[in-house]
Task: inverse folding
């Protein structure tokens, strides 16, 4: 799998280089290819996996959006919850469906837990959650 990283906002594009970044609008020349981005994070900090790999729960319905066929994707960063401190925190959580970016949750170091919920219109296909730690880099979970 090819992985392209936006050097402006940190967005990852899978397999195909976009013309513009769907998060910040940067042009394609602002992307660098690094197919080993997840492997590098894991190799730098193998002990950090327990606090970085997203824990994901999928519900085929949602109490928030009961009138449609909503799929609820609940994300918590880490089996052991990742810290959210000024010096060490989760910058963002991105959601992808079938390797296509669908949403980003920006986080600040104070005042929130490292968690998010995404409400998908389509229930089919692979779901990928990517998170970025300001110290330990990129981590993902797929189902």
Result:
């Amino acid at each position: 799998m090819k992985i392209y990283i936006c050097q402006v906002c940190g967005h990852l594009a899978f397999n195909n280089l976009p013309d513009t970044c769907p998060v910040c609008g940067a042009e394609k020349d602002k992307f660098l290819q690094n197919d080993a981005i997840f492997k590098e994070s894991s190799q730098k900090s193998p002990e950090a996996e327990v606090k970085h790999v997203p824990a994901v729960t999928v519900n085929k319905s949602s109490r928030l959006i009961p009138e449609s066929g909503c799929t609820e994707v609940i994300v918590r960063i880490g089996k052991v919850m990742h810290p959210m401190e000024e010096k060490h925190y989760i910058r963002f959580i991105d959601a992808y469906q079938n390797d296509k970016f669908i949403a980003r949750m920006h986080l600040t170091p104070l005042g929130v837990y490292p968690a998010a919920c995404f409400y998908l219109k389509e229930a089919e296909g692979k779901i990928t959650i990517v998170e970025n730690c300001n110290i330990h880099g990129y981590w993902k979970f797929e189902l």
